[in-house]
Amino acid sequence: MKKALILSTVLVGTVAGMAGAFQLSTHFTRASSTRRLATVQPCESSTIGTVGNGYLPVLLAKLSALTHGNSWVVCPSADVDMMKQLAALDGSGKLPENLEFVPASDSERVEDLLRNTDALMLACDDVDSVVDPNVVNYLLDPDKVGNLKRVVAMSRNLNGSGMGMLVSASRRAANAQVWDNSNAAAYRSFEQSIKVAAQKCGADWTIVRAGTLKGGACGESNLYPQYLAESYYELTKNDIITWQLLFDCNIRGVKLQKGDVMSGPGFKAVFTATGSEEHEGDSSRSGVAEAMVRSLGIEGAANVDFSVGTLASREIPTNEEWAKLFQQCLSN
Description:
The chain has helices at about 1-10, 55-65, 80-85, 105-115, 135-140, 165-175, 185-200, 230-235, 245-250, 270, 285-295, 320-330; strands at about 30, 35-40, 45-55, 70-75, 100-105, 120-125, 150-155, 205-210, 210-215, 255-260, 280-285, 305-310. The chain is α/β, with parallel strands linked by helices. An 8-stranded mixed β-sheet has the order 5-4-3-6-7-8-12-10, with helices on both faces. Strands 1-2 form a two-stranded antiparallel ribbon. Helix 2 (about 55-65) links the parallel strand 3 and strand 4 (about 70-75). Helix 2 crosses helix 3 and helix 2 crosses helix 11 (about 285-295). It is globular and about 50 Å long.
């Protein structure tokens, strides 16, 4: 029972709050005479696990299932049906066959999956939440993870640039999920716990930074079925047309920058909180999820942090464009 409670601490609350070919190979590159950096490339035998709360973990698990061999995600028992609805590939409710939804109460199944998991991803939508340190230590226990190569965690832009009273005011007045840097200390502690725990497991880590998370679904007419299902727009709609849909239609472009360098919206925050155009301080859920999943196969993304921003575009980056984005980002 204690194990189930530990897992459940990160999953309080409900969820309501990829296409492309990959080279199928797994390889290791020696970074020094004593240290090797591992990549987790798509193949039938690879397994990716996801833990967190909100919409992003569902999206991460779905993308992982579509690009890797196997994917599992821990979820509150009460939210399994909703998460499956969000992960559907089309209106029929069809799900990726290699995607497993694991109730947080089923610690036996979680530990069974951890033994053969190649990579673990952790992410929280809620700006007031991080994955609890007890959960991090439970999951990244050297006695549980015998095959773990990479831990990818979503954090936030923590440098404080472009923040201030107007950003906090926009969060209170327009969008409760605006990132205003008010929870920076918790995220710094979370990052440190990830690094320490990963090292104990002999795994590499990657920190992917986001600002205000927006969008993340398939767009009009299920244009990009690898992302969250159209039901996402119904769940987030508070007007005739949800601004989340408008955002997904307009903002499919991505920019990456190494380190903690991206700025918040500054004095424009009151106009950008629910904006559907390209703005500083925003991050697309689909862009963040793609960056996290794709970083698994990139040697240079091991043991570094990078930030994900937005660019105006009605088309998602191609595989070649993603490769160029990572090359430019990680070579700096």
